[in-house]
Amino acid sequence: MKWRRFVSFPILAVLILMEMVYYGTVFVFLDDWLGLQSPAGWINAVIFTSLASFTLFSFFVSVLTDPGGVPSGYFPDIEDNDGSDQESRDAEALKKRCDKCPAYKPPRAHHCRVCRRCVLKMDHHCTWINNCVGQRNYKSFFLLVAYGTISSLYSSVIIIGCGIQKDWDSTQTTHIKTFYITSGAVISLLSLTLGTLLGWHIYLLTHNMTTIEYYEGTRAAWLAKKSGQIYNHPYDVGAYRNITMVLGPSIIKWLWPSSLGHVKEGTSFPTVRDTL
């Protein structure tokens, strides 16, 4: 069952971290700074709660959504070039067969040794969601990182604001000062980590790449340069189209992690050649 994926230490650690950040931000720092009964405090609490809810929802969708497996009976589409016979086409098809599981691999699919199967448009296997990131859950994973980054930055602002307005010359114990400094350092580090990850996946999203394809492309570009050629990623069909293929054609639905009606079967993808 999919819910068994939650029986994992990294997932429990993420859930505990989310709970600690939410509770501390709202009921400790925000309450101490503005007061939850004040209009400013209430509005900030509602905004942060909304961000935290979207982060948690994106996390659940990422964990529970199957990233996409190779359809049963899939066979690669081999171009019938002039002069090619059945034997040569069979040999070409054999090159596209996974050597770890009895299945042919569609374009952009890779075998995950953790999941022990081929995953469509595999980006990577993420320990923190106990699941692969692939064709059907990349959107929710991207939004998880995006909402998590915004939430942690918002929390940082609240913690810093609370610390600035606090009267440290009064009877404040060393323990309280240590708590504030530690909390600020931890949430700042979390913001930096998530922000860096978000920047990386924005780059991948706008170039229609997976993490695996980026490193494969780096090697391909190096080999092409040695032979005097230029390597171009074949699936980069323009930034806007790249984005809509993942987030969807409707901008309103971009922010909803479970809106996946636009996601295709994942066995074929448009290429630069198709746009020419």
From TrEMBL:
UniProt keyword list: Acyltransferase, Membrane, Transferase, Transmembrane, Transmembrane helix
According to the entry, every stretch annotated as the Palmitoyltransferase DHHC domain falls at 95-216
Q: What is known of its domains?
A: The DHHC domain is required for palmitoyltransferase activity.
List the transmembrane segments: 7-30, 42-64, 141-160, 180-205
Return the PANTHER family for the record.
PALMITOYLTRANSFERASE ZDHHC16
Catalysed reactions listed for this entry? L-cysteinyl-[protein] + hexadecanoyl-CoA = S-hexadecanoyl-L-cysteinyl-[protein] + CoA
Membrane in keyword set: yes
Q: What is this protein called?
A: S-acyltransferase
Q: GO terms for CC?
A: endomembrane system
Q: One Pfam match, by short name?
A: DHHC
GO MF term (any one): protein-cysteine S-palmitoyltransferase activity
Q: What is this enzyme's class at the first EC digit?
A: transferase
Subcellular localization: Endomembrane system
Similarity annotation: Belongs to the DHHC palmitoyltransferase family.
Task: Look up the EC number in the record and give it.
Answer: 2.3.1.225
Top-level taxon of the source organism: Eukaryota
Q: Please report the record's description of how this protein sits within the membrane.
A: Multi-pass membrane protein
